Amino acid sequence: MALAEGVLLNHIARETPDVKRLAAFYEEVLGFQRVQTPNFGGFEVVWLSLPPSFTLHLIERNPLSGSRSEPFVRDPKALPRAHHVCLSVSNFDSFVQALKEKGIETFEKTQPDGKTKQVFFFDPDGNGLEVSSRVDPKERGS
Asked: What's the predicted TM-score (pTM) here?
């Protein structure tokens, strides 16, 4: 039996040297919206929301902590098994086309069920992202 009950994902935090740049990417590419962010003093933080309940916390990297190591991969083709965050969209094909028009390198694949399409890419800081087509749970089968 799990110790916790009713667990829901609350937020994901990303550390970055340029909070404004990363926030603009998530707003422009994925439709996140800025929400009220507490003043933590001494470093910049932006909170972004993706309705209905997901938030992304972008936090200015502490320059005294040293630079973050490079991501494990730079090629979106290698990302499916690597560390990433996945979101789903209902307009998958037009979303992928928009990524390509922005010059964002992508890798696409379709799951063996033939129903779920996926695109893998990186944000400006090299964090892995996956976006999948939204499939009606009734269509997935058991």
From this structure: 0.79
**Angle, CA of 40, 44 and 48, to the nearest 5°:** 95
| Helix, strand, coil fractions of the chain, as percent rounded to 5 | 25, 30, 45
Q: Which tens digits make up the pLDDT trace of 78-109?
A: 776 667 888 989 899 999 999 999 999 999 99
Asked if residues 80 and 109 have their Cβ atoms less than 8 Å apart, the reply is yes
C-alpha distance from residue 136 to each of 64, 119, 139 (Å): 47, 18, 5
Domains detected in the chain: 11-61 (3.10.180.10), 76-140 (3.10.180.10)
H or E element: which one contains 138?
Answer: helix 137-140
pLDDT score of 134 more than 80: no
